[in-house]
């Protein structure tokens, strides 16, 4: 985590440095623009009275050279310089400093469209110009160094502000890096505890939104793993309990036969008991394997459009003998139903298991009613019995492995509805159980097969 914190800190620091550089460039450009505007305004402020003085002297009959020479001291007092140049040739006619007479004055812009620059004796001069008619063009110039006082005044304040911003940014970068890495470090520690076997370990939610979402996802995963581990332990406990009874019977009766405690007709009775319990074990193991195969998606399974009405009617026909022996009547009310995409054999087993459960829980002389209809892109098949109903709060437990309701003999394995629910879920559907005033109802919901286009 120290490396992550360092990387985050350096990343924030890089962002801060880039931001300061960009800000410095922008501020510098603004200062240059401000300086150019201020320079032009100050030059124009100096140029205007000089121009008026020269223009008035020319109108009074004096030569421009005399007038410029007469105001040269006043120009020096404001750190200025006055030149008169030929308009077309730009040759210097008069220079109040007396250095550029006869030279060509370049017209090079200094950054502002109205301010120009020339170089004299290793010094840059900024100037503005205005035409004096046929006399020539009047030029008023000042050294560039005379205008740098604005920048010099602002530069210390800018540097102080930059240093303060950098310090604040460094502190914020350290805080942000810690804000992110601290909950992530806690998540790593909790994950280590969870991997070590502490399934109740949970991470506290803190930090940025994304880190909180990560912690919430970890807690959800941990809760699901804990729930699955609890279900696994409960399943193993139930399995050991369910296996113990038939194994105890097999061991006891076989031992009695071996030791000669059972003789005569009792040997046949004990053998039949052993055979019955062995068959029960086989059915239980086969049921468990079947549930495992369905839930894992392994094993042979076809996908085709299955006429669900025929499947339900076939399940009713398969249970006619069992229902007749139990003195229970099955009343199917199944018309034409849209097809379902799935495996016909497994769907048939689904409805056989549901109907078998209804027949087993129905008293003698009762009836099992079956209704089916298509609605909202689904096929719903209702199987209603007239038994004791489902115990309160057990509407979902009836689909758990080895759960057996009241009135079911020892022949039942408690896997029929678990297998039916697994088949329904593997086909994108589900089974719901609910109590009625005079029995229970199981609602099988399966999605209708989508029509295929040629």
Question: What's a concise summary of this model?
Answer:
The chain has 454 residues and is α+β, with helices and mostly antiparallel strands.
Q: What secondary-structure arrangement, pairings included, does this model have?
A:
Layout: H1 2-59, H2 64-70, H3 72-77, E1 81-85, E2 92-95, E3 108-109, E4 116-119, E5 124-131, E6 137-143, H4 149-195, H5 209-258, H6 265-296, E7 304-307, H7 308-318, H8 320-325, E8 329-333, E9 339-342, H9 344-360, E10 367-375, E11 378-384, H10 416-426, E12 430-436, E13 439-447
Parallel strand pairs: 8-10
Antiparallel strand pairs: 1-2, 1-6, 3-4, 4-5, 5-6, 7-9, 10-11, 11-13, 12-13
Helix pairs in contact: 1-4, 4-5, 5-6, 6-10, 7-9, 9-10
List keywords for this structure.
454 residues; alpha+beta; Beta-Lactamase; Helix Hairpins; Heat Shock Protein 90; 3 domains; six-stranded antiparallel β-sheet; five-stranded mixed β-sheet; 10 helices; 17% strand; rod-shaped
Description:
The protein has helices at 2-59, 64-70, 72-77, 149-195, 209-258, 265-296, 308-318, 320-325, 344-360, 416-426; strands spanning 81-85, 92-95, 108-109, 116-119, 124-131, 137-143, 304-307, 329-333, 339-342, 367-375, 378-384, 430-436, 439-447. It is α+β, with helices and mostly antiparallel strands. The chain folds into 3 domains: 2-152, 2-Layer Sandwich (Beta-Lactamase), CATH 3.30.450; 202-299, Signal transduction histidine kinase, dimerisation/phosphotransfer (DHp) domain (Helix Hairpins, Orthogonal Bundle); 304-447, Histidine kinase-like ATPase, C-terminal domain (Heat Shock Protein 90), CATH 3.30.565.10. The strands form 3 sheets. It has a 6-stranded antiparallel sheet. The radius of gyration is 50 Å and the shape is rod-shaped.
């Amino acid at each position: 985590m120290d490396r992550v914190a360092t990387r985050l800190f350096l990343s924030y620091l890089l962002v801060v440095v880039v931001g300061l550089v960009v800000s410095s460039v922008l501020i510098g450009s603004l200062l240059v623009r401000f300086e150019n505007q201020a320079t032009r305004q100050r030059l124009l402020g100096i140029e205007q009275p000089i121009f008026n003085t020269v223009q008035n002297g020319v109108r009074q009959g004096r030569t421009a050279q005399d007038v410029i020479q007469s105001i040269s001291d006043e120009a020096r007092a404001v750190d200025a310089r006055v030149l008169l140049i030929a308009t077309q040739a730009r040759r210097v006619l008069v220079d109040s400093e007396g250095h550029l007479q006869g030279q060509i004055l370049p017209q090079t812009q200094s950054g502002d469209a109205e301010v120009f620059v020339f170089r004299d004796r290793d010094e840059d001069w900024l100037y503005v110009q205005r035409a004096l008619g046929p006399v020539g063009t009047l030029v008023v110039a000042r050294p560039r160094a005379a205008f740098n006082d604005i920048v010099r005044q602002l530069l210390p304040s800018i540097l102080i502000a930059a240093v303060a911003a950098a310090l604040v940014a460094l502190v914020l970068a350290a805080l942000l890096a810690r804000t992110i890495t601290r909950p992530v470090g806690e998540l790593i520690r909790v994950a280590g505890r969870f991997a070590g076997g502490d399934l109740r370990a949970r991470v506290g939610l803190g930090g940025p939104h994304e880190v909180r979402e990560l912690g919430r996802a970890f807690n959800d995963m941990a809760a699901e793993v804990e729930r699955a581990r609890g279900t696994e332990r409960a399943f193993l406990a139930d399995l050991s309990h369910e296996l113990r009874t038939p194994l105890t019977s097999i061991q006891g009766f076989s031992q009695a036969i071996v030791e000669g405690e059972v003789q005569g007709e009792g040997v046949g009775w004990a053998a039949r008991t052993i055979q019955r319990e062995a068959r029960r074990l086989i059915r239980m193991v086969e049921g468990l394997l079947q549930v495992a195969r369905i839930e894992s998606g392994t094993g042979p399974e076809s996908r085709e459009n299955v006429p669900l009405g025929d499947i339900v009617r076939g399940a009713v026909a398969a249970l006619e003998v069992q229902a007749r022996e139990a003195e229970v009547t099955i009343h199917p009310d199944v018309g034409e139903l849209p097809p379902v995409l799935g495996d016909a054999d497994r769907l048939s087993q689904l409805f056989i298991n549901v109907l078998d459960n209804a027949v087993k829980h129905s008293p003698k002389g009762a009836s099992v009613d079956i209704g089916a209809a298509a609605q909202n892109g689904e096929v719903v098949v209702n199987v209603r019995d007239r038994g004791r109903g489902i115990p309160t709060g057990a509407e979902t437990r009836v689909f758990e492995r080895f759960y057996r309701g009241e009135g079911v003999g020892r022949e039942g394995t408690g896997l029929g509805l678990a297998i039916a629910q697994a088949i329904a879920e593997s086909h994108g559907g589900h089974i719901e159980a609910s109590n009625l005033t005079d029995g229970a109802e199981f609602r099988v919901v399966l999605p209708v097969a989508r029509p295929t286009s040629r």
